[in-house]
Amino acid sequence: MGRDLPFLIPEILLSLAVVAMLIAEMVRMARLALWFGLAGLAVATLATLPLLTADTTVFGGTYRIDLLSGWAKLILLPGTAMALLLARAEIAGQQREGSVYSLLCLVTLGALMLAGSGDMMLLVLGVVLTGLGSFALVAYPRDDAATEAGMKYLVFGAVTGSVMIYGLTFWFGGAGSTLFSDLGALEDKPLIAIAGLTAVIVGLGYKASLVPFHFWAPDAYDGAPVSVAAYLSVITKVAALFAFAQVLRDLPVESNWPLVIAMISAVTMTYGYLTALVQTNLVRLIAYSSIAQTGYFLMGIVALGTSAFAIPGLIVLGAAYVAMNLGAFAIILLAGRGLDDIRGFGRRRPAAGVAMVVFLLSLTGIPPLFGFVGKVYLFGAAIDAGYLWLAVIGILNSVLALGVYLRIVVPMYQSAPEATKSFDKPSPRALTAVIGVTAVLTLCMGLLAGLLPG
Amino acid sequence: MSFLALTLLAPLLSGLTILALRRAPEALALAGTVLGLIGAVGLFIAASDGTVEAVLPGLPDMPLRLVATPLTAVLALVVATVAVFVLTYATGYMAGDPEKARFFGTMLLFVTAMQGLVLAGDWIMLLAAWEMIGFASYLLIGFWHGRAGVASAATRAFLYTRSADLGLYLGAFLLIGVAGTSEISATLATTGAPALIAGLLMLVAAMGKSAQVPLQDWLQRAMAGPTPVSALLHSATLVAAGAILLIRTAPMMPGGALLAIGIVGGLTAVITGLIALAERDLKRLLAASTASQYGLMLVAIGAGVPIAALLHLIAHAAIKSSLFLGAGVFQHDREGTGLDTLAGAGRARPGIFTGFAIAALALAGIPPLAAFFSKDAIIAAALASTAAPWLLPLALAGSVLTGTYMGRALNVLWTGEAGPARTPVPFMAIGMGVLVALAAGLGFSFGALEHVLGAQIEKPGWIVPAMGLAVALGGLALGWFMAPARLLGPLLAPAQNGFTVAGGMDGLILRPSLSIAAACEAFEQRLLAAQVGLIRNLGLGTARLADRGDDTLFAFSIWIGQQSLRLGQDTRSIDTNFIDAAIFGLVRRIVEAGARARHLQSGLIHRELALTVIGIGLIVIVLLTAPHYF
Predict the structure, then answer these.
(1) A 124-153 near B (Cβ less than 8 A)
(2) Does A431 touch chain B (CB under 8 A)?
(3) Is B612's CB within 8 Å of A201's CB?
(4) CA distance B563 to B557
(5) What ipTM goes with this model?
(6) Cα–Cα distance for residue pair B614/B620, rounded to 1 Å
(7) Which domain covers residue A282, as residue numbers?
(8) Which residues of B touch A384 (CB under 8 A)?
């Protein structure tokens, strides 16, 4: 126990920050809550750095301190800080402002738990902790759309969550332990392995919005505040995908999980991009394209254990995806939710326009941007693992991706129709900071990817 | 090493400076390209003594490499040379444009990307450069994006070339996987089935970039950009990338892949030659001719003599940039590039026309101009190849057509009214003049070049030059004297339509994917709402149940309210008004909440969940029936 605590310093610091934020919110000092949150996230990020080289487990193997969970902290904590700033830009001065900040940090705590889970109980805890906070965040605006979105998210979460818990009991029965590292015992118990695997796919697939568990996502993103949509599209999603990797790398390959994950990957990216191709609402377009991006992550999960590119690929694309998707949502916050709202945006706001082009091109996977590096890794991983057909589908989809994202780029540089909403109002400082940081990361990290884990 | 850096960094830095400063773009651009040219010359001299290599940090285990062998150094030299003179010309051409800075900046970034591709020593670097070229060409083709149709033309070019990138990704990773390294020279030792598959995949990638049949139609549509852009794209850069890829990987190609390359190239040479002949627009004619000439290069690669393809690529780079630059001057004069509009334009500018004519004759293969030598090398290669019965007729037909469409273009430019005299165009004339001189004289350097590259081409006997000359003269005569309608006969209409099969890429890929996309959307929006079978009953039943629950809850609340009211009235010890307010307030709240819940389209959730359940079922079925399980 005493040995374990130093490995948990980032989580402990974040929890303390959340407590401080709740107190600040109680005395109605929302700005103070924001500062507590930012400081807590920053300190927790710094505290993660010395732990990056560790590869161990704590609390009897239930919580993993390894490369994946270390990088999850390094990606998700700063990502949450960006989301806090976005929320500040969007809802500053509203009632309950401070509770949004504390909920965001609390959900991130659950996300960290997901990404490091080495045990079924902890996995369930992570799913529930991320879920409860998210429902409230989605329903924050208290209008019809948000209430419906939150409701839908809740019902989906309840159903998939209970299916997951039910299925995990099979694994527990079969393996005699709740630790993932004991899943090897299922090698000769195929039916039990399948039952649990299906349940985990449902539970985490819902969190990561894989097809066909994605239905809540576009409605939730559209109904929620833009900053919350940005947060949900990156933080909980990346955490769920990392949790997927934690579970599946211990599951015997005999249960054929790589094949079924590969099929879901192919369906998810194709369905996501095709549907994104016909959206007219910018938030929904990005929502569907985020679903498609999840499919690319799955290519790395398919190759876990068979390709050396898999884990670095997941980490690199995870970091890239958080930066570029948050950036794109920040621009939506600035420009508006409709595809028409962005017409002429690039002409009126040249710097923000260039930033948006950088985000979208990086999402498409154009070099030398960050997204390209992640995709090269994951295509390589899929081919390495013998899933050539999956790589073919992935590359074909990156053509579709170009079509999807150019639908935003092209109108940005057309002339704006008369008397539209003005883009000239000054953007809040918090928003400018988020756009600047994410744009620089997206631009430069592609060139510095050699520094990332190998 | 330092020359390597100069070749790449000079254009990159000057491009970035232009984009940042937005001042003196012409001077900076020329400085950058001239420095790049000096770097390329130095690199060429250094590389002829021995390979120059630089290893940069890249991905872990896969560093980025730059390699200057004699082959890659020659290509870098060609790119740098064409860039200098095209940009000199552009100084005049873009003189009045308000967005000069963006133009020159993008052009330099494009040149940098191309040098990166040419000098790439590992597959990741090559992939990155390949994609950047695609993106930079998108920016350049769409430079005048405000004009009608330009943005869509640029998008189309980008999408089409990118779909063929599939081949490069798969081929490169296949080679990396087999060889265990990403270094290009090491992966070329691959043999057997992987080499064949990788070779065919590379061919797919090259077909997209070099506009080979059936992926040819994007190239002509890409004429929407400024003329210097076309001159650069069609000579030594974008389109050349495909042929360069095949030339570099030629040592690995087994016989089957070579045959496929030769046939694709031969068919393209003929088909796009016919399209060029049927064209009614000078720039589009030149664009089709580019595809046709790259087809001839592929024939040489397929015949197993990639050095002949390289020579033709070099000759073609000088010739085609000259032709486009000439066309640009005529376009300036006549405000259009339609052949009807340009009739007689050559008479008004005898100097420019002479340059254009020299380049045209060079392309047709008239001695001693550049392409005479390279085309002979291609015909000789086709003749000596084991696949000669296939390749030779296609190569000869492609050469005849070259003469024919160039003859026609010359005829149109010369016959007609000259119109009034024009203002001089000094920068344009200088840029074009040098390139024309190269187009005329480059052939004499080919012997020395073969020596440096260490690959001598056997000098053919009299039969090949005689055949080449006859074909060139015959083609030119046909083109000068006969109208295309008579030459092409029934082929005219399909040739004017670009021989699109089943609607071309639009019909084969674009429209189907859009309709699938619409179907997906409909599935999500409408099919869900459509009431079908089990799902309907489930959904409606649950909704009814929820409704009844709602009513019960409502009645219950009223009852509680009434009971409490009675309690309140009975005791009378508490302020009745307070109780009233509280209880009726509570009841009102609950009714409101119910009304709000009815607003929700909660029925949809059930249907979506039903689809989720179907998804779970499919996953279980896949897991149970998957092979190698039991």
Answers:
(1) 144, 147-148, 151-152
(2) no
(3) no
(4) 10
(5) 0.81
(6) 10
(7) 256-454
(8) 173, 177
CB–CB contact B629 A277 (8 Å): no
Please, are residues A204 and A143 in contact by the beta-carbon 8 Å criterion?
Answer: no
Instruction: Quote the pTM value.
Output: 0.83
Q: Which helix (H) or strand (E) holds A64?
A: strand A63-65
Q: Which of A260, A271, A366 sits opposite B619 (nearest CB)?
A: A260
Please say if the pLDDT value at position B399 is more than 60: yes
Find the CB nearest A212 among B174, B612, B624. B612
The boundaries of the domain holding residue B332 are 254-499
Please, what's the largest Cα pairwise distance for chain B? 127
Joined tokens for residue A360: 């979208």
A241 and A270 inside one domain? no
Residues A419 and A300 in one domain: yes
Spatial distance between the Cα atoms of B285 and B278, rounded to a whole number of angstroms: 8
Q: Which residue has the tokens 């150019």?
A: A406
Beta bridge partners of B183: B122
Is A46 a residue whose pLDDT tops 90? yes
Give the per-residue pLDDT at A201: 94
Hey, is the C-beta of A396 within 8 angstroms of any chain B C-beta?
A: yes
Q: Which residues 246-265 in chain A show a CB within 8 A of chain B?
A: 254-257, 259-260, 263-264
Contact between A127 and A161 (Cβ < 8 Å): yes
Pairs of CB atoms within 8 A across A/B = 163
What pairs with residue B381 in β-bridges? none
Contact B520 A275 (CB under 8 A): yes
Q: Which residue has the tokens 């057997």?
A: B192
Which 3-state string (H, E, C) describes B94-140? Answer: CCCCCCHHHHHHHHHHHHHHHHHHHHECEHHHHHHHHHHHHHHHHHH
Claim to verify: residue A241 and residue A192 sit in the same structural domain: yes
Residue of B nearest to A154 (CA): B605
Q: Give the count of domains, chain B.
A: 1
Pick from B461, B456, B257, B439: nearest CA to B379: B461
Taking only residues 327 to 386 of chain A, the set having a beta carbon closer than 8 angstroms to any beta carbon of chain B reads 361, 365-368, 372-373, 376-377, 379-380, 383-384
Q: Across the interface, which of A257, A274, A383 has its CB nearest the CB of B177?
A: A383
Confidence of residue B629 (pLDDT cuts 50, 70, 90): very low
Q: Between residues 77 and 106 of chain A, which touch chain B (CB distance below 8 Å)?
A: none
Backbone angles phi, psi at A117, to 5 degrees: -70, 135
Residue B466: alpha-carbon gap to chain centroid: 37
In a domain, residue B282? The reply is: yes
B476 in a structural domain: yes
Interface of A with B in 210-249 (CB under 8 A): 211-213, 215-216
In whole angstroms, how far apart are CA B302 and each of A232, A416, B276, B299, B388? 53, 51, 23, 5, 10
Closest-CA distance, B320 to chain A, in angstroms, reads 29
A155 touches chain B (CB under 8 A): yes
Poorest-pLDDT segment among B35-49, B103-117, B519-533: B519-533
Query: Which residue from A198, A257, A264 is facing B620, i.e. has the nearest CB?
Result: A198
**What are the respective helix, strand and coil percentages of chain B, to the nearest 5?**
80, 5, 20
Provide, as residue numbers in chain B, all residues whose Cβ is less than 8 Å from the Cβ of A144. Answer: 596, 599-600
Reply yes or no on whether the pLDDT at A199 is more than 60.
Answer: yes
Two structure tokens written together for A11: 């989580």
DSSP-based three-state secondary structure for A97: helix
* Contact (CB<8Å) A399/B163: yes
User: B531 pLDDT band (50/70/90 cuts)?
Assistant: very low
User: Does residue B156 sit within a domain?
Assistant: no
Residues A311 and A216 in one domain: no
Mean pLDDT rounded to a whole number for chain B: 81
The reply to whether omega before B254 is within 30° of 0 (cis) is: no
3-class SS shares of chain A: helix, strand, coil, % to 5: 75, 0, 20
CA distance A345 to A143: 28
